[in-house]
């Protein structure tokens, strides 16, 4: 996607959560994610944000959420921060693409870094190819469109219930992937004391879907 197109694409321009909420989604310390959103003397910001005039309002667009998840996956796998930022910057310059962490183009098997090129993966250091199955979990939360652009961020709850964060629906608030019902509506009804069976009927959800929200981790309430 050309830079001009991104200027009007809500995946890149519409803030849908705060840095704190992005940290919750990626299960990372809030201070770490906030540091990623700020440039330093040696690197630009790792996670893209949009300026907001109101303090406390969302600043992180969908691509920033996915960049946070990508950083989390690579860091949790043991890739040193210095190496990761160096390689990311090299790819940004080589491809003239500031969003390489949101494609995603970088993968790891827990030992080495790999880059995707024309659909195949190659090790950064020597070009060798890994076994694709090793890195499939890395893609489990990112939904891509036909152009390999990030389209949505997925959240898996119990019983196979899938939520989606997609800026095209409910201003990017977590929603049921099946019917786009926002999670905050279900949580609000449950907090108000509505029986789960009534909530399921009112929102055309299954008992399993409502139960998955009831027993979801606390952070879901914070990002919903």
TrEMBL record:
Residues 15-84 form the Putative antitoxin VapB45-like DNA-binding HTH domain. InterPro entries: DUF433 (IPR007367), Homeodomain-like_sf (IPR009057), VapB45-like_HTH (IPR048708), WH-like_DNA-bd_sf (IPR036388). Signal peptide: none annotated. It comes from the Bacteria. Transmembrane segments: none annotated. It holds the Pfam family DUF433. This is DUF433 domain-containing protein.
């Amino acid at each position: 996607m050309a830079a001009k197109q991104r200027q009007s694409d809500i995946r890149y321009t519409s803030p849908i959560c705060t840095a704190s909420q992005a940290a919750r989604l990626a299960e990372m310390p809030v201070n770490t994610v906030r540091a990623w959103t700020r440039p330093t003397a040696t690197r630009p910001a790792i996670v893209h944000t949009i300026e907001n005039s109101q303090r406390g309002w969302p600043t992180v667009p969908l691509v920033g959420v996915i960049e946070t998840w990508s950083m989390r996956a690579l860091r949790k796998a043991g890739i040193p921060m210095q190496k990761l930022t160096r390689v990311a910057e090299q790819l940004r310059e080589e491809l003239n693409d500031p969003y390489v962490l949101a494609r995603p183009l970088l993968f790891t098997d827990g030992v080495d870094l790999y880059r995707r090129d024309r659909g195949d993966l190659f090790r950064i250091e020597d070009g060798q190819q890994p076994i694709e199955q090793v890195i499939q979990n890395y893609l489990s939360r990112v939904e891509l469109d036909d152009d390999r652009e990030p389209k949505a961020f997925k959240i898996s709850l119990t019983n196979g219930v899938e939520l989606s964060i997609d800026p095209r629906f409910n201003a990017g608030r977590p929603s049921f992937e099946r019917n786009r019902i926002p999670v905050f509506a279900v949580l609000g009804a449950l907090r108000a004391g509505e029986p789960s069976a009534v909530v399921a009927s009112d929102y055309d959800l299954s008992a399993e879907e409502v139960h998955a929200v009831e027993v979801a981790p606390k952070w879901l309430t914070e990002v919903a």
